[in-house]
Structures are given as structure tokens and as C-alpha cells.
What we know:
- By secondary structure, this protein is mainly beta.
- The chain has strands at about 1-5, 20, 40-45, 60-65.
- It has a domain at about 1-20 and about 35-65.
- The radius of gyration is 14 Å and the shape is globular.
Amino acid sequence: MKYKIGAPPPANAAACPSSFMSSKATFTFNGGQENDGKKLYVYTRWVNISNAANNGPWSSLEIATISAGTPDAL
Length: 74
């Protein structure tokens, strides 16, 4: 996935400054407590490791709000 945290939203996947790869279709992304409440802008696609010509197209833009959860008590 290609992603950007915080406004303004990226125009396309190439405009995203960060990327993340998982070998699983379902995964947990840690956006960091410092980004709690900020928007997460994400483009995803399937990647074929053995043949990049078979990579999927980028998805449409997905938007979520990062929730860092409740911090542990000190």
C-alpha cells in the first residue's frame, strides 16, 4: 500500500510519501500514537513478487481516521 498521514489528501498513489507491504491480505497497520485523530489516506494493490507485470492496479483512495487507542497507564 502507498499512504499519507495528514492533510491534504494525495492526488494519486505516486503522490504518497510512504509505503507498507504485507504478505497477508488482512493486517494491522500501526499509525503511531503521535498521529491519533489524523486522517490516513491509502491506495492498495496486489503485488506479484515473481512477476511485476502481473501486479494489480491501484485502488481508489480510501480514507480512515487513525485511532491510537487508550495509552497504557504509567
